[in-house]
Amino acid sequence: MLVLITYDVNTSDAAGRRRLRLIAKQCVNYGQRVQNSVFECLLDAAQCRGLQAKLLKIMDSEKDSLRFYYLGNRYENKIEHFGAKQTYRPEDPLIL
């Protein structure tokens, strides 16, 4: 299923900046960054729960927020893209 992950981390101190880097690093391991704090991740249920657990350990629930949007397996018609960044299909091969 396609999961959209967004986060907002309070970076007013060094600990917040560290949390921001750690959350982004975990999300990069599972999906594609589509905006600064937004990732599209193609996950199964177990991967999703695992990633959630990792991110919840990192974040400070008093200062930060984390959102998961579940777009499901038929997400193609739920996404419209406009603007500069080229769109991609998560299931296509990613060439590094």
What class, by secondary structure content? alpha+beta
Total helical segments: 2
Q: How much is the average pLDDT?
A: 87
Kindly provide the radius of gyration, computed on alpha-carbon positions and rounded to a whole number of angstroms. 14 Å
Strand order of the largest sheet: 2-3-1-4
Strand percentage lies at 25-35%
Unreliable residue runs: none
Tertiary shape: globular
- Element order: H for helix, E for strand: EHEEHE
| Ends apart, CA distance between termini | 23 Å
- The percentage helix is 25-40%
Major sheet details: 4 strands, antiparallel
What's the total count of β strands?
4
Quickly list its features.
30% helix, single chain, 96 residues, alpha+beta
